[in-house]
Amino acid sequence: MNIDKKTYRLKPQVKIENLLPEIDQKKDCQRIIDGLLKNKKSIPSVYFYDETGSQLFEEITRLPEYYLNRTEKLLLAEVSTQIADGIKDIDIVEIGSGDCSKISILFDSIPAINRKTIRYLPIDISQSAIQKSANNLIDCFPEIEVHGIAANFLDQIRLPYQRKKRLFCFFGSTIGNLSRKKSLNFLINLKENMEPGDRLLLGLDLIKNPKIIEAAYNDSQKVTEKFNQNILNVVNQKIKSDFYPKDFNHLAYYNQDYCRIEMHLKAKKDLMVSSPYLENNIWIKKNETIHTENSHKFSPGQINYLTKKSGFEIKRKFFDPKQWYSIVELTKR
Ligand SMILES: C[S@@+](CC[C@H](N)C(=O)[O-])C[C@H]1O[C@@H](n2cnc3c(N)ncnc32)[C@H](O)[C@@H]1O
Predict the structure, then answer these.
(1) Residue ranges of the domains in the chain?
(2) Whole-model pTM above 0.90?
(3) Over the stretch 80-95, which tens digit does the pLDDT of each residue have?
(4) What is the pLDDT of residues 157-166, one digit of tens each?
(5) Architecture category of domain 61-209+298-331 in CATH
(6) In testing the pocket of ligand 1, which one of 54, 124, 152 has its CB within 8 Å of the most ligand atoms?
């Protein structure tokens, strides 16, 4: 499989466009270095998702503690007939599509005759995830045309020509990985890419008992630990550094002030890291942390604020019976 060509074909109904080579590699490396040189070190969470990272994330979604995936899927299964009602002649654009397992629930609720009229456009930074999931999807829904886009959804949402109405989907509470300000800007930008009448389905994890939330990011099988440590392998690849992931402990806790899970890597001992991109080595003290991810949680009031402030109209809101998760359906007027 040639992953370097900009556009290549897999199964006949699948086309994948690769916008990743357009990302400025210098800027990419600079972002990582800037984060590592800060007083409070950090690495942007987008670097979790190389092939190993995507596989580990899929494993996380199957863990008993990781209620997010299970709850969103059950909720989607419950409401998908309402959402799917009348869906035909439409482009479905999924942002951060991952393993595409959630969109399959929606496709299941669309009659086969209408599915034939749908084009599905998954967008993800992980080229391997997009290839694998697009091929798997076609095995189950061979009548759907798939046009995958390997791209950064923060600054590369550039869709093919609009031939139809669009339904955008942003599941997995991935919006919670952005800061509150960035999530608002992201929604505003997304709305700019939409036409009046287009819809957005947004999955959001709700504020709940912190113990339940913390357990989801501290699983007993330590898959989340491996996922967290793997970001250093991606960093090593990008900036040719010599991090040894096992030198760090996984740390994930709920920050009440910001209503978010914070994931960090905590140094087990004093460390020195070098990279040809760095003038001086980086020194990391024992117990010093590198902040790798935020996962913001939402109250119904915050959801209203975020969606209205970004100029969307709330069409419907769905909650699971425990009020742990919400899917909101938004439209652009
Ligand atoms: C939390 S996972 C959710 C995956 C899937 N939507 C789900 O609900 O299971 C986030 C997904 O977004 C992708 N992703 C993260 N940051 C991204 C970015 N800046 N641009 C494109 N994709 C990104 C990851 O590769 C991953 O598949």
Answers:
(1) 61-209+298-331
(2) yes
(3) 999 999 899 999 999 9
(4) 888 877 789 9
(5) 3-Layer(aba) Sandwich (3.40)
(6) 124
